[in-house]
Batch of 4 targets.
Target 1
Amino acid sequence: MSSNQASKLREAPLDDLGDFGNAPVELALYELLSGPLDAAALKLLHRYQRKLDISRKLVQRYADDLGAAMSEREVSRPTYLGLARTFAAMAAREPGDDEDSRARLLRYVNSAFNCVDKLDVSDPYVADLQSRLDLLASEGVQCPNC
């Protein structure tokens, strides 16, 4: 999504999102992933991560507490790709040198794989991402200090 499209999304009333549809979860995730991940943003990302890992999908609308799905329509493939890349980057930053770090690394990798499952793995970019995730997973399993 270009910055111009994102700007239009931010400025449009929720009932007039045009080509984007009524997708507040995608807008929230785009906003979240567009800036620095401070403590509040990281907490929200982890809530979406938990929702994704439990239900194996994200939909476009949830109740305010991210509990009940208010829509059956899943988020778009680009949203899954953005999340997969974010979770892969977060996994790569984990040193994996103790049990807690290793657990976070593997959770991020698992979440990224859950996103990749929604994508076309015949796409070379997605296939490359999947290969990198395989490497990260194998690093997470081999914990020398655990």
Note: The CA atoms of residues 33 and 86 lie 8 Å apart.
Target 2
Amino acid sequence: MLPDHLQAVISKIRQQHYAELYEPEADGTTSLSEALNEVIEAFDTNNHISCHRSYVWMALIFTILVEPTIEYYQPSSKYLRQDIINLIESGIEKSFNKSNTSSDIILAKQKIDQLKKMPLSKENKLPSIQVWLEAIDVFEQAIRVLDYEQAKPAILEILDNCLEGYALFPGSQGRRDLFDWWLLNVVPASWLWDYFKSLDDLKILPLPTEIKRHLISVLRSIHAKITTKKETRLTNQVSETSLPQV
């Protein structure tokens, strides 16, 4: 269940129109960047650990979604891409264990540098270098999200690359639909550390079905792990408090 304050922000933002999304109804009085910032700020309650986990969850969703863009232009980068995504997954699990993620961040940055240096496909020509650069930047910003101090500006950069930029797909068509999908599906899933239950939740995305299935599978797997760990910790805490005093 989403808290009242987040539901109110979602309702408010949904009713507005944005020139950056190529909406003819936009009158210039509302800014997309301000709207995104308001939503992301709404995650930041007094529980900073919970907030950070939500940012990382959202970063993972977009990292998986932009992977096909990088694969298309750098088909030989499969293992590097998967290593980076695995490190983000590890960061989520470690955050639930309250473990240090600094080693993951260092290793992931090294792999990002390697990814940038890999050659682009000669067969698949870029319509614009912006497409590849913004997809790569999503990976790079996702690593920054693992660092709590950098998480908020990094997740905003990811949203800029995907919702207004070309990391997911180029062109102006479908921008508002993509924004609404983020607002009504990704935001709640990130708050709840939940996963999409069916392909219907992803139908707005112009991506292959196998990519959508992969996203659901990854999120479901991590959700199962962290849910089990949370239940184990709660059980242990109850057991400890139930011990007779000596």
Note: Residues 209-242 form the longest helix (34 residues).
Target 3
Amino acid sequence: MRKALPVAVLAATAALVLGASPVFAAAPKQQPVVSTASAWTPPADYIHEASFFGAAACQAAGKEGVTEGRWSAYICYQKLPFTPVQELYVKK
């Protein structure tokens, strides 16, 4: 029984090295991620108005502009991931 354990460990190690492991054989191939800074474009007739630190500030400015009649609609967009900066796009 003592010799069976090292043989099993050796067989499992060889399977991993040679890629015969069922865990890795079932994994789907990953496609490369294609990402650019200009992946998002605002809808037609929307222009960039300002940048804000945080979604709440952007939403408040957008609502204020609609209430005051400076624009008819707005979109707050987070341009970069992991940052609180929001971009305000408006439709005049």
Note: DSSP finds three helices and three strands in the chain.
Target 4
Amino acid sequence: MKIFTSDVMNQPSEQTLRLIKQIAHTYRVAKIANGSSVSYCLN
């Protein structure tokens, strides 16, 4: 059984990178003064 470990095979596709960037832009986490954090969506 062959195992492909080429650098090209390990890189995510452009579509995957765009999806990750959209999620990172949309969802944020705010730290509150008491040390806890709250996540929220910008949509």
Note: The two ends are 46 Å apart (CA to CA).
